[in-house]
Amino acid sequence: MNNEQAIPFLKIHGCKNSFVVVKRSSLDSPPASVARRLCSHSEGLGTDGVMIVGERSEGAIREVEMFNPDGSAMGMCGNGIRCVTRFIHETEEDAPESLSFSVYGRRVECESRDKGRLVRVDMGRPSFEAEEIPFLGTEVTNVSLVVSGREFKGSLVSMGNPHLVIRLEDQEFETIELERWGALLEHHPLFPKRTNVHFVRTIDRSRCEVKVWERGAGVTMACGTGACAVAVTGIKEGILEGQIEVLLPGGALTIEWEGSGSNVSMTGPTQVICRGVLYL
To answer: Among residues 100, 54, 106, which one has the least CA distance to residue 75?
Structure first.
């Protein structure tokens, strides 16, 4: 294997949203191309994304790059940053419980318990500005979108990446064709950088259930920024209140937001799946 690149890795999941986490120093090839290979089910590790972690800089901040399976940049990933926190604790004996990361220029603070097995993330402030999502329309609440002859109404928000939240009644939630409508809505022409799509059933004022279609990845078991998007749009519209439990196919995340001008916090678990060396 002398002509092949050897990349040490950990595969970690947060609510069954799995990521391969590697150090930037172990890569000799462009990160986007490496990410496509690492995520591949036939050539790589069959995962939802890749987290690439830089070395500590001044202020003990580590730069993190996040990539989808198609090689596109995620922007921000809540489950992913929890997995990065676990990675640091698994690979550095002196890792503190409080960690700081820079994700595409955005500072992210994480507080962990039990060496990264449970992580609370400061997800920053949500943006409801159309140009920041980005969205080519003007309104971001009760937005009407038509795909393949069907109309959906939803709310939009950016959590460092774009999200479309669509609330459904029980029966429609059970029968929604996630792969069909998620893919069509992701590529709706009003989203110049595509969008994540979340179909939501409200259980009560502090709990909701979500089905996830992630931009560049497809159907996934969980989405941290998506859980935040579901909670903050629900609170903003008076549907949800207080500490919100977002139930995803892979597990539950706890979201807290005090309203306009405040940051969102997300708390959830991590689990190491495997570790090893991948040859490319």
So the answer is: 106
Residue 1 has pLDDT above 60, yes or no: no
Average pLDDT of the chain, as a whole number: 94
Whether 208 sits among the annotated catalytic residues: the reply is no
Q: Is the dihedral of CA 7, 62, 131, 255 positive or negative?
A: positive
- 46 Cα distance to chain centroid: 17
User: Catalytic: 223?
Assistant: yes
Residues in the chain: 280
The whole-model pTM stands at 0.91
> Looking at the predicted structure, is the pLDDT value of residue 187 above 80?
yes
User: Between the CA of residue 64 and those of 165, 181, 217, what are the distances in Å?
Assistant: 27, 31, 19
Catalytic residue among 77, 83, 110, 208: 77
Q: Tell me the CB-side half-sphere exposure of residue 243, using CA atoms within 13 A.
A: 5
Residue with tokens 């409508």: 181
